[in-house]
Design a protein that fits this description.
By secondary structure, the protein is of the alpha/beta class. It has a 6-stranded mixed β-sheet with strand order 4-3-2-1-5-6, with helices on both faces. Helix 3 crosses helix 4. The radius of gyration is 15 Å and the shape is globular.
């Protein structure tokens, strides 16, 4: 992946956690939580964040059950990702978010910004995945 800023969203039906990160360092920072009211994200706030950070691409967490099956909120996260791509004309990548909220709570017990911290965990996991070398065929030498 080429250098640039990425913004990650941990979509929820009441709150959306937001984090920003860099592929060069494969690190992210929790930014904020955006409210969702009556099923509608605060698109104005999202637009302001994108204008301020000018990301190269966006990452949206993909909520799945531990066995990889879809959850009821997976469809809502899919719609959100499609709307982001359509509104802002940026590439939108999906990232597995299984156990990220659990990891975020362990990293910051008692803190209320767990959604933003979860977005950070999602983005760092996705960045690490992108930097992993492709698996080699069985028996191949490096």
């Amino acid at each position: 992946m080429s250098p640039g800023t990425l913004i990650c969203f941990d979509y929820g039906e009441k709150r959306i956690g937001v984090a920003v990160g860099q592929p060069i360092t494969a690190t992210a920072t929790a930014l904020e939580i955006i409210a969702v009211r009556h099923g509608r994200p605060d698109w104005e706030r999202i637009e302001m964040l994108l204008r301020d950070w000018q990301p190269q691409a966006l990452v949206v967490g993909n909520p799945l059950n531990l066995d990889g099956t879809r959850q009821p909120c997976t469809d809502a996260a899919d719609r959100f990702a499609r709307k982001l791509a359509g509104r802002f004309r940026l590439p939108v990548h999906r990232a597995d978010e299984r156990l990220t909220t659990f990891a975020a709570r362990r990293q910051m017990p008692g803190r209320v910004k767990v959604d933003a911290e979860a977005a950070k965990v999602i983005l760092e996991s996705w960045l690490a995945e992108q930097q992993s070398p492709a698996p080699t065929a069985t028996g191949a030498t490096a």
